[in-house]
Every structure is written in C-alpha cells, then in structure tokens.
Design brief:
Blueprint lengths: L13 H6 L3 E8 L4 H13 L2 E7 L8 H7 L2 H4 L1 E5 L2 H10 L2 E6 L6 E2 L10 E6 L8 H5 L3 E4 L11 H15 L2 H4 L1
Parallel strand pairs: 1-2, 1-6, 2-3, 4-6, 4-7, 5-7
Helix pairs in contact: 2-3, 2-7
Length: about 180
C-alpha cells in the first residue's frame, strides 16, 4: 500500500470545476468571524462541488491572505457573493426557489441524520457565527432547522466541522456523490 501522489489524484482544473454539475446547495455564512474558518469552508465547498457561497455581514471576502491559507485556491473555483445583511441573502435565495436550512440548535429541530432532502430541490444551508450562532431573524425566516447529534460534553462543533458533516450528509442523501 502506498500513498498516492498529487498527480495521481485526477483532480479537475478550476475551469472544469466552473463547467461541472454542482451540488444544488448554497452555503450562507452568517457573520463568520474567523478567516481560517471561512477559508476552510471554501475548501470543503470545493471538495463537494457546492454551487456557491454567500458571505454575509462581518464575514470577510477573498482575496485575503488568511482565507487563502486554508482555502488553498478554492476561492477561485467556488462562486461567491457578498451581502451586507444575511437576511438579504436569504430573501434572494427564497425568491430563487431555495429551501432555507438553518443549522442550529433550536426547539423542535430535526437531527441531520433524520432529514430527508428532495432530489430535485435547491437548498441553502445557513451556518452561524462561532459564538452567537445563527441570528434570530434568520432562524425566523428559515424553512427547516437541522441539528447535528452530539453525545459528548461540548454543546457545539466548530463551524467548519459542522459544514463538512452537513454537506456530506446532504450530498449522500440526494445521491450526488454517485453522479460524479
């Protein structure tokens, strides 16, 4: 058994990424403060061919050295757009037919593993601030509330870990990974 070399991984080019079929999922970053978290989310979005990212509020935008440190070029492949207010992103996505998924611990949330996405639907996944979580106004304007089951002593995962778990789960459930 040997580790594969980079040139053996058959990665697509940025140009091919732009032309490829995408996971029908938009990530909405609601006031993410850490530049490393933003870059990591871009990199994860690239890895799953997420459609686009909406950067909202205090969430920093590329190009930035500290975003690039963890994004490793994913800011070039994944489409993104900035909004001063997260609610403007949510309203735009709703007008385009997206179902808004809020990843947050709220009353009557649905555990992610119990969520059953529809195959031909378009989803937007809202990820909240590292300290305050998703803003109450965004919670009130969401269609579904998803929570990742946790059984340890901590009450939350890092936002980048949460993003990766949720994206992977949704991609598997709509059989997106089998399509590529």
């Amino acid at each position: 058994m040997r580790k594969l070399k980079l040139d053996e991984l058959n990665r697509i080019s940025v140009e091919d990424f732009k032309k490829s079929e995408k996971l029908p999922l938009t990530l909405v970053l609601d006031n993410i403060r850490s530049l490393n978290n933003i870059g990591s989310i871009f990199r994860t979005a690239d890895g799953f061919r997420v459609e686009k990212i909406h950067l909202c509020g205090i969430t920093a935008c590329p190009p930035h050295r500290d975003i690039q440190k963890t994004a490793l070029g994913a800011t070039d492949s994944v489409d993104w757009k900035y909004f001063d207010k997260t609610i403007d992103s949510v309203k735009e996505l709703k007008s385009e037919g997206y179902t808004i998924l809020c990843l947050e611990q709220v009353e009557r949330s649905t555990y992610l593993h119990d969520f059953k996405p529809e195959k031909n639907a378009k989803y937007a996944l809202v990820l909240g601030n590292e300290v305050k979580g998703v803003d109450d106004e965004i919670i009130a304007n969401s269609d579904f509330y998803l929570e990742i089951l946790q059984i340890g002593t901590k009450h939350s995962f890092n936002v980048t870990i949460s993003a990766g778990i949720a994206i992977y789960d949704i991609a598997l459930k709509i059989n997106y990974i089998d399509l590529v």
